[in-house]
Amino acid sequence: MNLEISSDSFRKIRDLLHQHAGILLGDTKTVLVAGRLWRRLQLLGCNNYEDYLALINGPGGRDELALMIDLLTTNETYFFREPAHFRLLCEQILPSVNRRPFRVWCAASSSGEEPYSIAMCLADNLGMSGWELLATDISRRVLAQAREGNYRMERLENMPPRYLRDYCLRGVGEMAGRMIVIPRLRDKVVFAQHNLLGPLAGEGQFDVIFLRNVLIYFDQNTKQRVLDNLVQKLRPGGWLVLGHCEALGSVKSTLTPQCPSVYRKPETNPLSRVSA
Q1: 200-225 pLDDT, tens per residue?
Q2: Do 27 and 102 fall into the same domain?
Q3: Which pLDDT belongs to residue 269?
Q4: Residue 133 forms beta bridges with which residues?
Q5: Residue 2 falls within a domain, yes or no?
Q6: Is the pLDDT of residue 235 over 80?
Q7: What is the largest CA-CA distance in the chain?
C-alpha cells in the first residue's frame, strides 16, 4: 500500500473539495490531505489515492465523497469564541428586534459549541420561548457530535459561570471532566445538514445569521455565491455576523457595515429603521 499522495491525486481531491464544498486548498496542504485520509484508505483497502478517487467517481461514490468532505473540513471551535459578538447579540441586536419568534441561523455550526452559545444568550434574555435557532453544517460527523451536546470542560474558559450553572450538567464518575448541555436547551436547537453553495430550502427568513470564520476558506466567486444565498434568508433589518478576521471586501451586497465583521440588511421601510 502506497500512502504517499501524488501531485495529480492531490489536485483531483482539491478540485472535488472546491466543487462540492467551495473550500479552496492551497498547494501546501498535501500533508493535511494525506494525514486526514490515509486511515480511510486503509479501511477501504485502497492501495493508493488513485484507487480511492476511482471509488469516489464510481457507482455509489456519493456517500464516500460526503465522508471525504467530512474528513477534510476544518472544525475548530469552542464556546463563546470571539465573545464580543455574543455581547452584541444580547445588548444591541435583541433589543432592536420586537417581532417573535426571534430567528437565528448558525450557518456553520461545526460540533455545536457556537449554536449552544447562541442558545444560552437567547434563553437568558428571552426565556425558553419566543425564539428559534437553526444550526447547519456540511459535515454529518460534526452534526452528530453537536446533537449530543457533550463536551470536555477545558473548552469552557469563555463561558459565563452562570451559563455553566444554568444550562450545563457537570459529569461525575466516568464522565468527570465533561459536561452536557441540558436537554431542554438542546431540544431548542434544530441541527440539519446544509451545503452553503446552495440555497437553504424549507425555511423562512432570519433576524440574525452567524457565518463566522468560514468565508476565509472560499475564493471570490464562492464568497459571492454563498453571500447571495445568505442575504436571501435575512429579514429586512437583519444582521449578518462574520468572524473577527473576515470582511465582505469586494463582495457585492446591499448589506451595510455596522462594526467590524458585522453587517445589516436595509429595512424595507426606512421610517422603521433602528439605529445601530
Answers
A1: 998 999 999 999 988 988 989 999 99
A2: no
A3: 57
A4: 104, 189
A5: no
A6: yes
A7: 68
Residue 167 has pLDDT above 80, yes or no: yes
Domain of residue 16, residue span: 7-72
By CB atoms closer than 10 A (0-12, 13-18, 19+), residue 275 is: exposed
CATH number of the domain to which 187 belongs: 3.40.50.150
pLDDT of 151: 94
* Integer-rounded Cα radius of gyration of the chain: 20
CA distance linking residue 46 with residue 1, whole number of Å? 7
Within-domain flag for 45: yes
How do residues 60-97 score in pLDDT, each as one tens digit? 888 899 889 888 876 678 999 999 999 999 999 999 99
Same domain, 88 and 68: no
Residues 160, 109 share a domain: yes
Domain presence at residue 77:
no
Domain count, the chain: 2
Nearest 5 degrees, angle CA 225-CA 228-CA 234? 145
- Conformation bin of residue 22: beta by default, left when phi > 0, alpha when psi is -120 to 50: left
Which residues are known catalytic residues?
A: 36, 137
Tell me what pLDDT residue 74 has. Answer: 66
pTM of the model: 0.85
